[in-house]
Every structure is written in structure tokens, then in C-alpha cells.
Amino acid sequence: MNRRTLITTVAVLALSATTAFAQGAGKPMKITLNFLAAAPNAGFMMAKQMGLYEKAGINLTIEEGKGSGTTAQMVATGQADVGFADAPAAMQLRSKGAPVKIIAPVLQTNGFAIISLSESGIASPKDLVGKKIAVQPGTAQTILLEAILASNQIDKSKVDVIAIDPAAFVGALLEKKVDAILGGADFHSIQIRERGFKVTDIFYRDVGVPTVGLSIIARDDRIKAEADLFKKFVEASLQGWDAARKNPDAAADAVVAQFPAVKKAQVLAQFDVVNKLLRSGSDDARQGAGEELGGQL
After folding, report:
1. pTM > 0.70: yes or no
2. Which fold does the domain 112-206 belong to in CATH?
3. DSSP strands (E only) in the chain
4. What is the mean pLDDT of residues 6-22?
5. Which of 152, 123, 41 is nearest to 144 (CA)?
6. Best CATH choice for the domain 27-109+212-292 from the list 3.50.30.50, 2.40.320.10, 3.90.550.10, 3.40.190.10
7. CA 137/CA 70 separation, integer angstroms
């Protein structure tokens, strides 16, 4: 090989290495979020922006979700390597025999709420009698509605539950097509307030249904077969969440960089709620993850 050929070969190899790095080297993994990209799931975008997954040898693809129930189903059926879902959705699925498990809780509680316009006068679950409530079938909020009604001695036949597209939740409430929606105070309520309306949030945790919030979930067999991979994923994710909690502005930038349709101002507003729901630090979540992954963290 002459000197010119050698130089050309080295240049080609260097370019190939650079291209591979740019495309994301490492073990391919896909996470399906609980819902649209926003502050409640920003820790993963933050970790990716910081290069934490790449450093851990993971080439992560982040996919928006369509509700925790759907995300849990996708993980259970192998359509996603890992998911981010509300704990009740994963727990209910597991109770039915699905091989899905929580490997790291992230939010110590959740922003589930019965959301209404303050002018409606809905201040407690008992005020829902005779009212129309918009729900999205399959979500953790909807699954737990029956528990709320039972906990507050309300006959469920006296509440008009209407299934609609979650994208139409806010519009339906503002147009008075429904009296309340089952949603997130860290998402829907903020959208409504941004439009100048006063909102009443009846948090699930305040009316008899406290639950663990959004958590990282995976299939039993994948956890067993690739424990080290999931350990690295959890560690990188929790570092990203810790960074997001401490610097919401940078986290909002990370969300917008990876999902350009998202508005930074809205993500920052959501963080005002999300940071109250997050675990105090990564240690608690890491301990929970360690228990699920055989104490390997």
C-alpha cells in the first residue's frame, strides 16, 4: 500500500467512525413515553442531550406515547424495549398476567386530577353527580375513576362518562361540551390557564386514591436476560432526571431540541408542577430500581 492509498484509507475510516458516532453508537433501545413530550418525561431528553446514554453504550430512540395504558401494553408485547408509564397502569396489566415490571419509580406521586373550570362549581367528587366527564379509555386516570367514585360513595351510574380523543379534552371543556376532564394538572390544566381561564384541580391523591407516579417499566424476560443493559439505562435516566430537576430551563431546551413542535414556555410552566411530584433525588429511585434488578445498581 503506497502512502497516498494509506492516507485515503485512514481518512475513510475516520469519516466512517465519525458518521457512526453522529448517528449514535451503542446498543439500540427504544423507550415509549407515557404521552406527548413534555416536562413530565423530560428527564429522558435531558439525559440524551447530555450524552449519558451514548456514554453508557446505548443508542436510544425516544418515542411519544398515547397514554400509560397503551405504553404498558407496548412494553408487555415487546413493541418497546422500555416504557415510561404511570405505576397503576403497569400494575393493573401485571395483575392480569402480563410480564411487565416497574424497574425504577421516578415521580413519587402523580398529577392525576379531575379538572374543571372554576366557574362550574365542581369542588369535590360528589359534585360530579349528573355531570359529563371526558376520559381517554385505557389511561391510568380512567382506570382509577371507579376507585375514586367508590372511595367517595358515589354511584357510578349517576356520572356521565364520555370517551373522547385526548387531543380534544381542552376544547371540549372550554366549549362546555363536558363539565370536567380526567387529565394531568401538569399538562391539561396548564394549557387551560394559558388561555386565561381559572381551573380547579381535584387531585386523585386528595380524594382517596394516592398512587406512585410515572415509572420506568420493562418486560421480565428482558430484565433477566440483559440486566446490565437495563442497569445502565436506569442509571443514565436518573442522572438525566436529576439534572432536569435542578435545571428546568436546560431540560426544556432538550425537549424542544428533540421535539421541535413543543413550546418551551409550556414545558417550563409544567415543571412548576412536575418538580413537586418528583422524588427528592435519584437515590430513592435508584434504590427501588436496585430492588427490581436484583440489587445490581
Report:
1. yes
2. D-Maltodextrin-Binding Protein; domain 2 (3.40.190)
3. 27-32, 58-63, 82-86, 100-105, 112-117, 132-135, 160-163, 180-184, 199-203, 214-219
4. 41
5. 152
6. 3.40.190.10
7. 10
